[in-house]
Amino acid sequence: MSGPAPVFALVSRKPEACSCPKKECPRHGDCQPCRSYHLNDKRPRPPYCERKPSLWRRLFGKAPRNARKD
Question: What are the residues whose beta carbons fall under 8 Å from the beta carbon of 1, sequence distance 6 or more?
C-alpha cells in the first residue's frame, strides 16, 4: 500500500503566465491537465514550473547564450 497521493493546487494559469517554454503544447497554461500528464507519463517527472532550477540558472540566473530556443 502506497502513501497518500500528492496534493496539487487546483490552479489554472493563464497561458501568458505559464513558464513552460513549449508554447505549442496543448496543455500550455492549463496546470491540472499538465500535472496529470506528467504524473502519468512512463517517466514521471514534475512539470517545468515545478522543477528544481538547473545549476546554470542557479548560479547565473539565466540561460546560457547558446541555449536552444524552441
Answer: none
